[in-house]
Predict the structure.
Amino acid sequence: MFDSPDKLLLGLATGVVFGFLLQKGRVAKFPVIVGQFLLRDWTVVKIMGTAVVVGAVGVFALVAAGHAGLHVKPLLLGGVLSGGVLFGVGLAVLGYCPGTTVAACGEGRRDAVAGLLGMFAGAFGFVAAWPALQPVINGLGDAGKVTLPDLTGTSPWLWVGGLAALGGVAALTFRRPAGRQSPIGDTTPPHEAEAGTP
Amino acid sequence: MSNPLTMKSWPPYAVGVGVGLLTWFSFATADHPLGITTAFENTAALAEKAVVPGVEEANGYFAAKAAEGKSPKVGWEWTLVLGVFVGALVSSRLSGDRSPEVVPALWRWRFGGSPAVRLAAAFAAGAVMMLGARLAGGCTSGHGISGGLQLAASSWVFSAVFFAVATATAFALYGREGADRV
């Protein structure tokens, strides 16, 4: 029922850093998450895109060196599609994703606490209804734990390089105009003021 | 230069690099991707086992997870979630970036200032979001970041679907006028 204490401590330490980064990244904030899906604030895409490219380089290197294995989730199309739809609706209404809901609770946001309780209710419902949900999850077949390089018979490094190039081009193309650019670091972006004043 | 720990925010690309490096750490030290919602499912399963007599026999979930070697437990992912709370708490306290308001401004503009309405909607949306994450086997962290960086086909499909649906939902809720208020 419990992992070993050192593994629990390792998880805790990893989580503390993750939560710290999410809070400093301003993604534990309702206007930043909803602003992303209203296509006005690209913070979420910038953070996720950078994390994916940087993470891919290290993780594929660790795998190539035999220090870690991939943990790919199966392509159960029924579960992934139905889950993606429900997840998207819930995310837009709540204004926090699961990790940032937890971080927003840490930041003191009361509506995130209600969201967190709802997440527990959803998890209870999922486990209780698990037998009935199997036809939904498995209804469109199981393509297995496949990666994009597997599907295309290409090297993962081609994809990592391609994603990095795509991200670099997008970052340069959609840069804020020079006049509006805030100095790096200790700034309050313009929409932050929105949090306190209607 | 001021202390980075007391800044209210860091540039998104710097945070992204930090999260990317953290995934190296989690793969290297725990052979585990970052993910949030499995811990919620485990907690729910443990609670159901504790309060519903005979649920382990009645619900095939428990036998199926045991066969996969993934019986519900308090593990690395569970303390990871606890750590996210602690890390965000520490970060926001160091910078004074606390947000105690119940009803976010954009929500108030569209749906009014009632805390009860906002809290009820947040609860329901949290439940729907978690159900979706567990149907798909991951969330923004487990699929979006961890699965994305492993180039998992399931994760890229999930990310494309949830991004499109969340965008459609946000525009249905707030419209272009709301977008101009962000």
